[in-house]
TrEMBL record:
Keywords: Bacterial flagellum, Cell projection, Cilium, Flagellum, Secreted. It is found in: Bacterial flagellum; Secreted. PANTHER family: FLAGELLAR HOOK-ASSOCIATED PROTEIN 1. Pfam families: Flg_bb_rod (PF00460), Flg_bbr_C (PF06429), FlgK_D1 (PF22638), VWA (PF00092). Belongs to the flagella basal body rod proteins family. Its main location: other. Residues 302-495 form the VWFA domain. This is Flagellar hook-associated protein 1. InterPro entries: Flag_bb_rod_N, Flg_bb/hook_C_dom, FlgK, FlgK_helical, VWF_A, vWFA_dom_sf. Coiled coil: none annotated.
Amino acid sequence: MSTGFSGLTTAVTGMHNNQKALEVTGHNISNLNTKGYTRQQAILATANSRYIVNNWVELGSKVQEIRQIRNSFLDGIYRREANALGYWEARYNGISELESILGEPMTDGLQSILNEFWNAWQELAKSPESLTVRALVRQRAEALVYHLNHIGYQIDKLQEDINNEIIKGIEKVNSITKQIAELNVLIAKAIAANNNPNDYYDQRNLLVDQLSDLIKVEVYEHPDGYMDILVGGYYLVSKTSHTNLVAVQNAPLSHFVVPVIEDLGVEIDPGMGRIKGLMEARGMVSGAKGSYDNGTPNTTCDVTFAVDLSSASSGYLADLQNSIEKYVSELKSNGLEYNLRLVTFNAGTVSNFDFGNDTDAFINAVKSLNISGGGALDFGTVVSNVAGTGPFAEGANRYLVVFSAEALSTTGNLDDYISTLTKNNIQVSVIGTDAGWNSVAKAIGGSVYDITADDYSSLMSKVGTDTAADVNKRIATVEESLNIISNVKKMLNAMVNIVLREVNRLHMSGYTLDGKPGGALFETIDPSRPLEMGNIKLSDSLLDLNSIVASSTDANGDNVIAMKIAKLRNESIMASYNQTLSVDSYYQQIILTVGNIGNESRQYVESQQVLVNAAENERQSLMGVSLDEEMGNLIKYKYAYNSATKIVNVINEMLETIIYRTGIVGR
């Protein structure tokens, strides 16, 4: 009897296990189009046999496990490539929006508006007294101001939108990590209860895929079912707990945010991914109004005049005092903000006086200086004094103008002087002799001016002009970085600021149609910030067309100023690194830069998409549901099930014969 019933057990397990396999197959087919689903497989194994009445009795089969067909190595490849794709897509979307704003090479772009502005001045040079042409000049100037302000507003809005996307991305990271921690609990409970958590695994893996699009993650799975997620070396998920990221201002008064670990207050590096791409597209800079890093031109210069009052300078001090106004006048006419400091030195003493932007007080102080005799003080003390005082304003362009007839020893601490000045970003110009001073000045981009010059008025004007030119060079020189919009803003605002200040300088150097000195053509809306996109307005004086300056004198028919302004488009007033460019060439360089970044990003997106698709195809070839394969399994398990039922029927007939017919033979 035991042998018969054991056969029945064998057949029943065959029915049960093949039915389970059919259920798994049906589950696969039902989830054919479910995103993130991993196909499952019923792994059948031989059931343990038993030793009964001197015989080993086979007991059929058992379902060893319901296994997911998945490869963690392929998951890692996919997530790495998806992470890079998210990064490049974010950069490409940012630069594409910027290209749309600039509108180049469309006919309504900034280049077209600039051309019309220059052409209007060209027409005014032909007819300097024509009110009709003057009205055209004002109209073109208004169009330029409107376009520049509009571009500035659109770029600021684009940065704001990207910043909001970063905030949403951080919130999405928190939502995903919270769900992963919750799934960790469910998976661990299922494993502990010897239940199948495969569908939970799918949900969790899909969440990790989504997370890898946003940030670069490190994933660690534990045998007990838990998964840990690390970003930048910090745990966002640790078993059943998760840590939130918070969007925190990246600088005082900034509205730009960075991701920070909530409990620790530590900024994290997203590595790659969409959030990092968004941060670079926006610019990893301070978003405060007037931020130099975010494109506001730095037109502020701190100027220290170090005057040698030793007897060696006695023959030249009066020349300096009589022409010091020329230097300050050049700074002012070039539209620079400046702070002034006076350092006097001789043997054994050094004095330091701060005047800020009080021009009159500074000039009067210079004019009241007197030679005090003795030998000149060691230059190192002057350098230490100037470097130690620090700038008036953070980030200001710093200049040291030395006035001394003494030679500078080149055998002493020359390298230390240069190192200190370079470290503090102080450019040195010397009104003196070449003896020794040339080594210092050239090492940090300064100049030496002849202290014995006959025309000190021209000399001081030249020193002031060179200071202004260096400020312009610093503004126009934009260091390469991964930041996109903030860097382009720097270049655009550099061009706008330098061009408008130069137009103002020329306009103020001439005369109106009424014979009055000209005023500024362009003014700032917010006086606390320099001329830049979004902060420009036409001077109210231009409501009177007679106030537009065309002449360098008050003589009728003079067109010198109008001609100079018209020629600015071709003048090399944009100095960047070791080259000087015209306005048009500099702007074309900006457009070329934007185009190159856009083209590079597009190519990376396309190539990265190919890699992602290849990784996903490779992954799906293993984990994806194949309808052909599942239909084959259906047939296989169906026949196995049917066969097992036939065995049951046969054994049932055998047992029925034994039970009901035994003992009745011969009746």
